[in-house]
Structure formats: C-alpha cells, structure tokens
Amino acid sequence: MNPTVLKRFTAAWNAASFFKTAIPFYKSLGERIGVPMLKDVAIHRILHSVEEQNNWMVASDKKELESFISSEILTNKNTSVAAPLGLGNVKGGALMHPEKLINTFRNFLKASNILISENFEHDLLKISGNHVEYKDVSAKHIIFCEGASVVDNPFFPLSVSPHRDKVFVGNKGEYVIFKAPKLKLNSILKGPMMIIPLGNDLYKVGASYGRDDFSKGTTKDAREEIVSKLKRMISCDFEVVDQVSGIRPTVKDRKPLLGKPFENKPIYFMNGLGTRGLSMAPLLSEWLLDSIAAGKPLPAEVNINRFLK
Q1: pLDDT, tens digit, 9 for 90 and up, residues 15-56
Q2: What is the residue range of 286's domain?
Q3: Can you say whether residue 86 is alpha, beta or left, with left for phi > 0 and alpha for psi between -120 and 50 degrees?
Q4: Do residues 209 and 67 both lie within one domain?
C-alpha cells in the first residue's frame, strides 16, 4: 500500500485518513485470524534528473506530504539498480499479499459458517421496500461489492465504458513475475514500473494499463512492454516465470462509488476503488455502514448518486 502518487510527487486522495484506518484494521484482522497480514516496507522512487530531485525536495515540504515523503535523497547502493541520481524515500508504506488475505479470511469465515461460496444469480434476488430475499436468505439490505464484475449486475445503474458517458471504466492491468537472484531488493522500487519483492528471489513488476478493457487473460504486448521497462530499471539477469492480469474497477472522476441508488430498494453498492482498494476499503466500509445503520450522510465525492442527478 502506497500513500503517494509517485508519478506526480503528490499524496493519494485522502491518503492520511485512509491509512489511519487501514493500518490498524489489517493488523487487528491478522491477529483475529492468526496470520500477520501487514509488513512495513520502504518504497523508493528512482529520480531521473536534477529537476526531479528538486521537485522531490519541494514536495517533501508540503504539509499533505510531510508524513509520507522524506526530504533526504538516498544514494543507490544496489549495483543491479539503475539509479545514478538517487532515490526518493516514501514513508508509511506497507506490503500485503491480497491473495493470501482473501484466501485466509475466506477460510476463517467458512469455519465460522458465515460464508456462502457460490456464483450469485441476480435474477433470483427478490426485493421489497424494506428487505431482500435470496434463496433461503432474508435480509434488510444487500451490498454489492463485485469489482469489475458489476458490469454483469442488472441492478447497477451507471453507464459502463465504452458506452454513453463512460462513468464506470474497466482498466486492465497485467503484472510479470520474474526471478532475479542477483537483484537482492528488499524495498519496493518505482521507476517506469513498480517492482515488488515477493521473497525467494521472486519479484512482481507492473502494471500495464488497458483503459476500457474488460478482457480476461494475459497478453504478449503487455509482457513485452513491462519487460522493456524493467530492463531500464535493473541491470542484472532475470527470468520471467509467470504473468497475471486483473481488471481495475475505476470511475471517470477517480473516486469510489458508495451508497443506495434507488430510493425504494434496499440495494447498496461499494465499488470503483481502482488501484487503491486495499488502503481505502476499511474506511469506505465504515462510511457505508454508518450511512445504512445510522443514516449518516455519505461524503458527496463518493456517493453513487452524484452520477444519478
């Protein structure tokens, strides 16, 4: 989890509030299910010019960034990393393995008998003014948290790219997994791509961006683009061992989608978390549940109804 936008030397939207909630949430969750979920990690940004060095120093003096960006420019001591002008140092980053988180928490919920693992059939959902029914389950509300798969939800009220005004935008991303025994990198490294250490000399590098792309599977073009940019960041030998892909659920104004789009239906959505879902999800969940249980208004910038006026 990265609190900054390293391409522009800015803080991610609402980063301080999101991280203040996310870090203790994941630590507490790890303790609850008996598996540590979060590890502090350094994030280093390769600086490519004297201008970028100066811009980094200026950014470190800004109030919204002082908690996240160190003013010190680090000297690169890794001979396998191409960073002759030094590295900017990001504070407050955290490393998490989402697949491990999801699988471990899913098993915990199954063991507690509070998870049904099956494909949801939207046409079987019965809705009345104050409750919903699905097969043998009855509830006061239903919250759809489907990521990019929401495009197949007949209750989703917003336009999907590439049609009409493109409110909901699929953005395909691909990563390459590579092995590099000589790299010896312990920090996350940001250059043309992001390199994330996985352990045992394995690293993940990416990601590509495919706007309006909801297709599944990996592509040769993305692999070649990623590998080409990786070669500009490191000088040691490496071996590509895998390639993975996913669809980022993004929104045209780059803000999440929360709330109840239909006045007379107890249907809610939590979506559009884009590339920062792990850091945003804990606080966004609080906002949504507070709006449902206590009637607390959602912040206007995340309310799904901003597109339905």
Answers
A1: 999 999 999 999 999 999 888 889 899 999 999 999 999 999
A2: 131-163+253-307
A3: left
A4: no
